[in-house]
Write a sequence for this structure.
């Protein structure tokens, strides 16, 4: 275990593997190839490690070893092993061989990996014509065969190293991917903030109806592990509409050791897949999401006759789907324990017409608990500031807490950040949320009457006054200072004239 690898080494090596594609294929295309290869390499290394271990113990009984290997978390056919693919890397047909290997892995683990590789093809023309494609994939196999990327459990010990490397790649792809990044990744500090506020407990179930690559959902699970001595007594549910992103979420879950999950593929508004035994929307203790901002064509055509009754408070505008996701999430909160945190653009706080009516009803039903304003440039692909809305089925009071956290952040060139840990931006927001009291120029606990007086407009500056009065200027003191400076200047001029005369000017 002396050569246990450091996280930084693995991260550096997997990021270097991307060099194979740079300049040939765009990042939003090659990210799926690199992430899938990382998953394949990990499965192969675990399989080989366990096989070698059994061979040491039962070397003379191969039948027993084969029998023991059928109980592995993932079963790996010989043809689908990374080593087999690597050995054949100089031969034509790398793309086809890798695709066949992925198909064989899926077949052997259909309960866990059904359809996970259907949206990725290493034999695709996206990688160029046959010779170029074969060369790129040979380099990729060579990159992943480097000693730093030996992911055998006997060497790395902790599965977190691999999960973290996967997360590191996703984060870096998000930083590079511009506008598309919001589709699959929420900045980790924002996920951390939402998970801390939701404070998931043992035995609870969490759901993210627009789960992307699953990072936000897993942060909720990690909260349980941190509080209850590594406990895995919780379940994670998610739905994702983009096939390739859904596959990322599945692989991400497995690489983090999150086997107790159910991630469905499909459009949450038009075709919610997380249903109970009676074919109704399943309820959850914790519901979190970072849905697409103001989605056009979100499914207004089917909303009027929604069989789940999600839009009984009103149908959102057809070109802005923010409240469609919020209303879906409201319906999936479990009675009594249900709470939710959703990221949204500021427009949801003050826009009128149907959105105004929906907002008023949610407030009158005493479901809205808090509104948290975030800094600008926090999210990948958009510079606009967002907010987090917290709803709860059973509130302690009838008030709404407003927190203006928009002015405190760590500044970055392209991306601003919230700091985490003790004394950080995130801990200040969480502590303020938990205390539920007004804080001068930072938070305000509003009574229902105040919300009604403001026509249920939730724009944060209406409640949190951040105006800083300018210091009064003492004109007499300023005038005296000015006279003194003038006198000093005259004395200096006189001195300067003396020096110039001495020098003969």
């Amino acid at each position: 275990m002396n050569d246990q690898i450091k996280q930084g080494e693995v991260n550096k090596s997997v990021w270097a593997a991307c060099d194979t594609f740079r300049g040939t294929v765009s990042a939003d295309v090659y990210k799926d190839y690199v992430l899938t290869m990382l998953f394949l390499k990990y499965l192969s290394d675990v399989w080989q490690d366990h096989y070698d271990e059994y061979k040491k113990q039962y070397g003379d009984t191969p039948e027993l070893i084969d029998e023991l290997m059928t109980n592995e978390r993932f079963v790996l056919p010989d043809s689908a092993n990374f080593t087999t693919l690597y050995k054949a890397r100089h031969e034509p047909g790398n793309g086809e061989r890798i695709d066949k290997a992925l198909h064989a892995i899926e077949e052997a683990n259909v309960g866990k990996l059904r359809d996970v590789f259907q949206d990725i093809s290493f034999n695709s023309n996206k990688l160029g014509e046959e010779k170029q494609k074969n060369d790129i994939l040979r380099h990729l196999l060579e990159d992943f065969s480097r000693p730093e990327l030996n992911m055998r459990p006997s060497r790395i010990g902790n599965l977190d190293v691999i999960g973290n490397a996967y997360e590191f790649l996703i984060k870096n792809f998000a930083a590079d991917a511009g506008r598309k990044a919001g589709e699959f990744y929420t900045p980790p500090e924002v996920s951390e903030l939402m998970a801390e506020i939701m404070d998931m407990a043992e035995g609870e179930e969490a759901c993210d109806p627009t789960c992307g690559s699953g990072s936000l959902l897993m942060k909720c699970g990690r909260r349980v592990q941190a509080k209850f001595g590594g406990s895995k007594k919780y379940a994670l549910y998610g739905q994702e509409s983009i096939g390739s992103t859904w596959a990322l979420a599945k692989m991400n879950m497995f690489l983090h050791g999150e086997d107790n999950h159910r991630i469905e593929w499909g459009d949450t508004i038009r075709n919610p897949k997380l249903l109970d035994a009676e074919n109704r929307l399943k309820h959850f203790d914790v519901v979190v999401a970072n849905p697409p901002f103001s989605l056009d064509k979100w499914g207004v055509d089917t909303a009027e006759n929604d069989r789940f009754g999600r839009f009984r408070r009103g149908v959102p505008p057809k070109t802005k789907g923010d409240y469609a996701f919020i209303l879906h999430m409201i319906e999936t909160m479990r009675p009594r324990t249900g709470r939710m945190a959703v990221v949204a653009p500021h427009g949801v706080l003050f826009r009128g017409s149907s959105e105004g009516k929906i907002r008023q009803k949610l407030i009158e039903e005493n479901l809205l608990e808090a509104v948290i304003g975030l800094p600008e440039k926090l999210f990948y692909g958009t510079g606009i500031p967002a907010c987090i809305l917290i709803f709860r089925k059973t509130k302690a009071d009838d008030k709404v807490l407003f927190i203006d956290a928009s002015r405190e952040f760590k500044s970055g060139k392209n991306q601003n950040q919230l700091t985490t840990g003790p004394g950080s931006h995130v801990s200040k927001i969480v502590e303020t949320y938990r205390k539920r009291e007004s804080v001068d120029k930072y938070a305000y606990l509003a009574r229902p009457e105040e919300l009604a007086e403001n026509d249920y407009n939730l724009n944060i500056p209406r409640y949190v006054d951040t105006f800083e009065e300018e210091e009064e200027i003492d004109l007499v003191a300023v005038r005296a200072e000015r006279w003194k400076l003038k006198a000093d200047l005259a004395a200096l001029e006189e001195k300067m004239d003396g020096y110039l005369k001495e020098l003969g000017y």
User: Anything to note?
Assistant: The beta strands are 205-208, 235-240, 261-265, 286-289, 339-345, 368-373, 386-392, 400-404, 443-446.
